[in-house]
Amino acid sequence: MNRITVIALWACLGVQVSLAQSINGTITNTKQESVPNTNISALNTGLGTVTDNNGKYTLPIKKGKYTLEISALGYATITKEISVEDENMTVDISLSSSNEALDEVVVYAQKKEQNLQKVPVAITSLNAKRVEETRSWKLEDMVGIIPNYSYSELGVGFQQVQSIRGIQVFSENPAIATYVDGVNSLDIASGGFQFMDIERIEVLRGPQGTLYGRNALGGVVNITTKKPTNTQSVFYESSIGNLGLQRHGLGLKTPLINHKLFLGLGGQYQYRDGFLTNSNEDKVSTVLGSNGRRVGDEESFYGNLFLKWLPNELWDVTLNLKTQVDQSDASAFFVSVQDDKLALENPDNIFLGRVGEHGRNLLNTAMVTNYKSNKFKLSSVSAYQRVGIRFDDIDFFSLAGGQVFASYNDGQVGVFNRPQEVFSQEFRISSENKNDKLNYTAGTYYFNQTNYEPSTNSARIINERTLDVLSSIGKNNGIAVFGEVNYSLSESLIVTTGLRYESENRKLVFSRFNDENGTVTFTSPRMEERGNYNALLPKFALAYRVDKNINLYARYTRGFRAGGINGNVLPESVSQSFDPEFSNNYELGYKSDWFNKRLRLNIAAFHIDWKDLQFFNSFGNLVFARTNVGDARSTGLEIEVMTILIKGLQLETGFGFNDSKYKDFVLSRDVLNVNTGTVETILYDVSGNQLSNAPKHTLFLATQYQFSLGKDFKFSLRGEFKNIGQQYSDIQNDLEIGDYNLFNTLISISNDNYSLSFWGRNLSDERFIQYGSADTSFGRSSRISAPRTYGMTLNLKF
Q: What start and end residues bound the annotated signal peptide (predicted)?
């Protein structure tokens, strides 16, 4: 940075300090009683404060138009538009009880904080209170709550399949983009973060390519944790339950310099016993002592650090560091039962020759810098992510015998693979003048990834001395340029257009060899392949405001998932690479609030065309490669209702219907003819089959009643019912996951500082296939869901 730039920057800062202003006021309830510990934040600025014991607050802020978000425990969150003109301005605000009005919900769906009801996107948002009420501790807990959302995992949270409206993947490259405090998980191995101290979880349904780019083929999950504020606070959470559950968290938020520098610290420990017992009497290659062992134990350590700096009203800088360590010496990582009927008949058993172990170390760091003037806002998001994975004695082919895998690194098995690393940088500029008819968001995005994918950096243990090793390293980078413009044709009608250009380069170096006591013999030559993938991702939307409580919208968006390279040597006639996938989403939406915010009704209808799906096909002589097999489509409806019937009694309903089909989709498979002893290639036309992992419907019903116990305490009783419709795990529609029901309950007593909850999940102890083979032509592996769980949680807040 040259000297003139530095002088100009400091001059800008100095001018701003001389223009410093503030707003102040009092927060009261409908009885005109003061409300202490109320959070007041100016959206999209990083500015915020908390009321004192008399309900009074002061918020330093410069002239301009703002949207304030006001939230307090026991009261309905509201947003309020203000225009700051005077040097010191008074804004008094009245809050309604949460027993009498619904929260106004703020989301970050369009890269800025906005009222959910005004955003022309199908979004389900869980704020901190709903996360606690639904006991959403991980992504799996959101099944049913989010219409047309499906989740299954391969034994651990960092190997999972998320599906929205039927759009999913069959590889490590996600189709649902998951962001944690602005950091994108580019690989599913970097998912599975523990939920702790959550501010909100947003699920955007349908492709979001224009603003989010790659991997937002089916939608986006935005997870935001709580940031430090101007008031010191300490929280502690402790949960115990069956299956040996231990979950303990502790956090601190404090200003280091009032209105300037803030610190947030949090840590959590979680342990749970597995619910499976190894029953391997008839297993080939059984390891002594493995029979009767418990399988599926999980232990995690999580830490979160925030450092937030507000030099003045123009700038805010936030540094965030997250780390998580997962480990198990009785691992369920990638293990399953190869007979789905046997699995359902024995839901608490698994059949392994040996019980394996796994570990994962995950580090996320991010620095977010914002500069806000009266006309525009500049944002920079710099992120670095590092993931290390190890596994050993993983009996992947349960019941088959002899198929045991381990991570491999430089001649050693069961050790951490070389870490996957991702650096990303996003710059954005957006308009800030709310009086203008035209508003915009534009930016650039770059990422650089070094990828050691676990399944292709592994050793199959043939015997104690011989290993069959796959080795690969991926070098991927990409750049994007994007822009979105909103233009107000009238006070009621807004048109939005957007476009994103993505360019991604991939390089894969791979080989296969035998390692016999350190002597390496290549069975496939070391190869290097490259690919380049480009995409244009347009967006068009119309939003019509009928009145202040009813909004309509129509939108078209496009999603993109990059192509890739097959990591095995193929004949010259077969392409080593495969092309990108695209999804085109057409959507109509209706959002409304009724009866003074006592009833909320949101409806979305959609149609998605999914093009060039990437899937494995055979090319003769037992040669398999990923290629672009065919297309699919998904059509459906989503309805969300939330209402307060009478004071203290709240009802929630979420319903999703999805009619999905594969189109022009032909699989080729090599099959051994037992009569001739020859391998034959057979074609399977799966066109017309239902998309895998796409329930025909999802239904969520919840009722919660809350009333006061004396002056300080509240009692709450909540019941939930989830019905997940019939679906298939596989593309052939051969492995069916039938319709199933889940019943949950939560009973709690609380005041401003304490809460004690008793909860139960899956009270009817229903067992169903949680994960099944994506392709049953290679076998019918499956994993069964967890049994009934129950426990208690204590929360302390000071």
A: 1-20
